[in-house]
Fold TIGR00282 family metallophosphoesterase.
Amino acid sequence: MKILMLGDIVGELGRYTLLKYLAELKTMLSPDLVIVNGENSAANGRGITRTISRELLGAGVDCITLGNHAWAQSEVFDFIESETKVVRPANFPPGTPGRGFATITTSSGKCTVISLMGRTFLQPLECPFRTIDKILQKIPESHYIIVDLHAETTSEKQSLAWYVDGRVSAVIGTHTHVQTADERILPQGTGYLTDVGMVGPYDGVLGMEKDAVIRRFLTQLPVRFEVAKGRCQLNGIFMEFDSQTKKAKKLKRIRIDEDNPLIS
Amino acid sequence: MKILMLGDIVGELGRYTLLKYLAELKTMLSPDLVIVNGENSAANGRGITRTISRELLGAGVDCITLGNHAWAQSEVFDFIESETKVVRPANFPPGTPGRGFATITTSSGKCTVISLMGRTFLQPLECPFRTIDKILQKIPESHYIIVDLHAETTSEKQSLAWYVDGRVSAVIGTHTHVQTADERILPQGTGYLTDVGMVGPYDGVLGMEKDAVIRRFLTQLPVRFEVAKGRCQLNGIFMEFDSQTKKAKKLKRIRIDEDNPLIS
Amino acid sequence: MKILMLGDIVGELGRYTLLKYLAELKTMLSPDLVIVNGENSAANGRGITRTISRELLGAGVDCITLGNHAWAQSEVFDFIESETKVVRPANFPPGTPGRGFATITTSSGKCTVISLMGRTFLQPLECPFRTIDKILQKIPESHYIIVDLHAETTSEKQSLAWYVDGRVSAVIGTHTHVQTADERILPQGTGYLTDVGMVGPYDGVLGMEKDAVIRRFLTQLPVRFEVAKGRCQLNGIFMEFDSQTKKAKKLKRIRIDEDNPLIS
Amino acid sequence: MKILMLGDIVGELGRYTLLKYLAELKTMLSPDLVIVNGENSAANGRGITRTISRELLGAGVDCITLGNHAWAQSEVFDFIESETKVVRPANFPPGTPGRGFATITTSSGKCTVISLMGRTFLQPLECPFRTIDKILQKIPESHYIIVDLHAETTSEKQSLAWYVDGRVSAVIGTHTHVQTADERILPQGTGYLTDVGMVGPYDGVLGMEKDAVIRRFLTQLPVRFEVAKGRCQLNGIFMEFDSQTKKAKKLKRIRIDEDNPLIS
Ligand SMILES: [Fe+2]
Ligand SMILES: [Fe+2]
Ligand SMILES: [Fe+2]
Ligand SMILES: [Fe+2]
Ligand SMILES: [Fe+2]
Ligand SMILES: [Fe+2]
Ligand SMILES: [Fe+2]
Ligand SMILES: [Fe+2]
């Protein structure tokens, strides 16, 4: 099983960047499954709309994960129940609309994608450790399992990855919008990367127009943030898993920007 | 000017790892200056002692930066004033012992190393943006300037790097203990990396024994953390700067662990 | 049913203050039940010991509640299971030692005391709203029910009180160590006070020696806090409940200090 | 000097409540000066408009203080410079529009009103301790000095009050919207109250419609908050100061609601 996972798609420029490179990445890598985090894909960089989810899924994405910005566009409540390939963090409280994991059937087997959120410096959701224990009981052994771990701190991300080592195929972090360089296969076979990074503007702050964010830090006054313009970047990870054990065999980070062009 | 900077040295295993590789790295890279972050170098992973600072400086380190754990070993107050190559975050309040920046003379010129802390999810120190503005006014144009930006969030780190782009040689982040993969030279010539990563245990959580950290997340009870044992890792960045402009010419991340051996 | 509840007992001076006034308060008020929050009753103002819990229960206290400092003295794990009148926050994760609520039999009927913690600016425990829903299902209608709501923000405390209005006899807040002046009976009969205040030093900061706390704010450096000395204060609330409905009939705040002497 | 200070005016109902009681309170108490916190006086409970500031000042208010919600209505930037009786927290960074303190001339002398914000669980503004030191150097000894201390935690509020004891006439807290019962005159003569409480709805959560706030706690989803309707409350403090020493002589809390009617 070969899986391509891309980080948080930020705004229209993020969607444009995805479309620009996805076909070529697919040609080069032949992934069986493409996962993207869509929590920032709306025009203002917050949330996702039905149109955008349709656009991403139509462009070759197989599964869309979300995060703390999942609910920023209120229309999400209109389609999150019916859109079976859109996954919101599983540890929102009981009764939350939508699903916390989804199983995608590929020509190389079934893969269950779980979205999970950390709690440190974020909302007090259900315990992510106990939540994933419960979910894993429901997933057949024959599935590959990918966890999008949407969290702020490296501490919580590493802890959860060690906690499920050997029980899932990979734990890939999102939320910080900066790719980390610590990809590894943990001793029991789980692939891990603290953060996969983002897709969108290259010259902003997490994809947002930088002068506004700097002004906010300097003045401590309310400042309206907009998605940055100009040059773009794409960050992701390409993973290969063993068809018998469902464990990780190889992890390859992907970084494309003006300083690091895609070489096919 | 060639500079090697290594991230947070964690515990005795971090110091051992540094000693194990530093000589060979120096042979390979011939840096004019070696900077390490020492905020976790004490035996329990918190703070630094006089003996350890002497040990690091004696082993070939030219400058030690600190961070939020700077004061964890109370004996730091006994030597921070006199130890001219140990730098604590510059934006602690007026009256804080020690210095926020230090100038090191090398055979290739003078380099001023500034330590600065972010405030998001950390203590309410002085504004790091205004603090660095004031410091930069005091530094001669002939100096290279390296900023160790000790901060939690990618947002604050990127914002500050953009803010000083063209005014310093490089901004290199520390504190998360995970190396990021976003090294770049900003448009006005400042080198940037969100986090340089740590030096110490490879199989812990930020260098601490993982079972204890996981237990803390699971139980929410007090748990005593100790530095992990076993395999080690070393993360750093090697930078080259232009002798005329003092701007960055080349950034090369360094990652050494059992999965990524040092190849000389 | 008449209940006297006193807030966080801070250090030895807090225990001394309690002993000094309790007999006289009992004589004046004839409570059927005395509840105190003991999370700060250890000598250093953090946690509780077996000896202290025995001392408090021997001095006329019927039930001891705890809070975020419950676990600060590690010996608490030795007696929290067997000490049936000591209650720790009920929304710690499954598997936490001790009990989250306890039923005390008095000559005027049975009273169940529930300890619950808020999550805003505190640890990410289980949802306090859902936790109390579950607990209330287990308590017979014939019981009086008192909730010690240990939380930081007025918002979370008011919200939870409204949420259980009519389902418990009273919700009394603790943790801020400052008594609030908003005692009231909510429309469905639940008595409410945002915070009952503390018992201990009158001239400290939340009971701790003030110069140290001020120095911590000023320097942002680690400072060792000790329980303040000198004059003392006692804060509490006296409540009367209807024997049929178990609802609140009357709430009377108690404040005793040098400026507000106890007048019998 | 006699001063009446009322806490955060919340929404239209808060303004209505103020108008309803202010004339009678003035008749009863004959204050020389009336201060209100206006940070929540806009229709949606966030910020203040020019029209509302004019309305409050026209209705007999002499000085309006603000807090963390100061900037929620963007039109505030149009009048905060020219409106000399509107005071925003003094420890916003250098360059912030408006003033951090204002001197009001009354028939009983001049009173300087200072607005100051805490930093714990709030934004990283300038140090409030150092900020007030600087302000106090500029104020003539002949002035009465009232500090509106807008902060979240009781710890920071008590610390700052002790810090300025004897140097200002009174420190009165705002922001939590719940009146505390700890009014006192500190040993060096400064009057103190941790929080003065709010003016507005009696049956909400901090003045906002309670079902929405509860739903937010329960679901962790975005919920739109509106100012509550129905019954109202007014909280304040009446203070008398010595004309020679400018120190506090008497503090009397005011609480008016359906359960505590105004008795003239
Ligand atoms: Fe994101
Ligand atoms: Fe996010
Ligand atoms: Fe560190
Ligand atoms: Fe750190
Ligand atoms: Fe307490
Ligand atoms: Fe507490
Ligand atoms: Fe307010
Ligand atoms: Fe406020």
Remarks:
- Chain A is about 25% helix and 25% strand.
- Chain A has one domain: 2-256.
- Helices of chain A lie at 11-29, 50-58, 76-79, 128-138, 154-164, 210-219.
- Chain A has a mean pLDDT of 98.
